[in-house]
């Protein structure tokens, strides 16, 4: 007769014949990445809010140097990068946590504070990674509709807070609609929300913002222990392919996020590329490119207004078309015209600001949608 160790514990007839996935995982919405051209296709890729500029030569050199050292593990805590980021932002290194893109940092911070059934409040439509990260962490998504102009409704978000709320996600500029949250609106939210609710300000597109009414989030952090900032080198810094994001938080929260982070989550190559990008001369060149993209955004927005569009005021590197039921058809039409865009079925379509020729090709398509 076999012992229990050899047969495993008793199984009843209703034991499934496969390994069950967690119900929360079975129910996850898919993350739909921006479309990519298949090999040989000549298409402008305006579907993922990427920076159209290739990395600076100094950054490519740092990557090549680091590539020759990849038999070694990276510095687990990315000490040098954390120190450089802290100096750059003007906070203590204890307050900075890096991760494999800010999407990973978001997952880690949710894992650090969300228990089973806890609520996370966020605007919708917003960044599609939010509901996925909340479910994976075991939390419950509480979505608050955007205002008609594609802006976050912060009073409604404050009103959605309950005893179970652990986190509020504030995406500014909001992906995919583009508008920013203003300082007075955020002050009111922070005054209304209990001190034990984490308020995450996702500033993925910070460097593209030119609206002067936005908050100084780092100054807010000094006044509110519950505020956490999320930033990334994927967009303005053009390092989307290397995956470097970071959180800035009070030291106690930063330590909690660090504790649940994937060990060695940021590769040595990514750390070195990020460090090279933060060098003052590189930094200056990169911000000139951001200025050029902001100028392109203004040109595209003016041309669209001229065509007769009345769209949300984007402060990021993309524009939003609330096309409703026509969304998928318009996206297909853009593709036939050589432009990849990011449609959200039944809702609207996001178009990144890219190369001048790409933006021109897109403007021609947009004129036909009216
Ligand atoms: C692109 C984006 C990020 C950054 O993602 P990474 O993982 O750092 O590449 C974070 N938040 C929002 C809202 C974004 O659009």
Automatic annotation (TrEMBL):
Gene Ontology biological process terms, A to Z: L-histidine biosynthetic process
GO molecular function: aromatic-amino-acid transaminase activity; histidinol-phosphate transaminase activity; pyridoxal phosphate binding
Keywords: Aminotransferase, Pyridoxal phosphate, Transferase
Family: Belongs to the class-II pyridoxal-phosphate-dependent aminotransferase family.
Function description: Aminotransferase that catalyzes the conversion of aromatic amino acids and 2-oxoglutarate into corresponding aromatic oxo acids and L-glutamate.
Names of the cofactor(s): pyridoxal 5'-phosphate
PROSITE patterns named among the record's database cross-references: AA_TRANSFER_CLASS_2
UniProt keyword Zinc present: no
N6-(pyridoxal phosphate)lysine, modified sites: 235
Subunit structure: Homodimer.
Keyword Hydrolase: no
InterPro entries named in the record: Aminotrans_II_pyridoxalP_BS, Aminotransferase_I/II_large, ArAT, HisP_aminotrans, HistidinolP_aminotransfase, PyrdxlP-dep_Trfase, PyrdxlP-dep_Trfase_major, PyrdxlP-dep_Trfase_small
Catalysed reaction, written as an equation: an aromatic L-alpha-amino acid + 2-oxoglutarate = an aromatic oxo-acid + L-glutamate
E.C. no: 2.6.1.57
UniProt-recorded name of the protein: Aromatic amino acid aminotransferase
Enzyme kind, highest EC tier: transferase
A Pfam family of this chain: Aminotran_1_2
Aminotransferase class I/classII large domain location: 44-362
């Amino acid at each position: 007769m076999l012992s229990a160790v050899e047969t495993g514990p008793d199984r009843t007839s209703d034991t499934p014949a496969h390994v069950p996935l967690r119900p929360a995982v079975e129910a996850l919405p898919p993350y739909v990445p921006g479309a990519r051209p298949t090999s040989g296709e000549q298409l402008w890729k305006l579907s993922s809010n990427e920076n159209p500029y290739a990395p600076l030569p100094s950054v490519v050199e740092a990557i090549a140097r680091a590539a020759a050292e990849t038999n070694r593990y990276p510095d687990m805590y990315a000490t040098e990068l954390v120190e450089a980021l802290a100096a750059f932002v003007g906070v203590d290194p204890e307050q900075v946590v890096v991760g494999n893109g800010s999407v990973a940092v978001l997952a880690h911070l949710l894992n650090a504070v969300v228990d089973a059934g806890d609520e996370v409040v966020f605007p919708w439509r917003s960044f599609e990674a939010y509901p996925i990260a909340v479910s994976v962490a075991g939390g419950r998504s509480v979505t608050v509709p955007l205002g008609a102009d594609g802006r976050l409704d912060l009073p409604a978000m404050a009103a959605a807070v309950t005893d179970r709320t652990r986190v509020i996600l504030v995406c500014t500029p909001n992906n995919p609609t583009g508008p920013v949250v203003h300082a007075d609106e955020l002050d009111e939210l922070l005054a209304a929300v209990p001190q034990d609710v984490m308020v995450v300000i996702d500033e993925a597109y910070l460097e593209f913002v030119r609206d002067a009414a936005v908050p100084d989030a780092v100054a807010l952090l000094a006044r509110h222990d519950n505020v956490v900032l999320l930033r990334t080198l994927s967009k303005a810094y053009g390092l989307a392919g290397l995956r470097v994001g970071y959180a800035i938080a009070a030291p106690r929260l930063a330590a909690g996020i660090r504790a649940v982070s994937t060990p060695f989550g940021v590769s040595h190559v990514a750390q070195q590329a990020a460090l090279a990008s933060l060098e003052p001369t590189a930094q200056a060149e990169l911000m000139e490119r951001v200025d050029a993209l902001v100028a392109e955004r203004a040109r595209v927005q003016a041309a669209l207004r001229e065509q007769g569009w009345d769209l949300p005021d984007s402060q990021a590197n993309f524009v939003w078309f609330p096309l409703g039921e026509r969304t998928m058809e318009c996206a297909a039409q853009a593709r036939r015209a050589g432009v990849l865009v990011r449609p959200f079925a039944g809702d609207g379509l996001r178009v990144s600001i890219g190369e001048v020729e790409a933006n021109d090709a897109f403007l021609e398509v947009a004129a036909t949608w009216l």
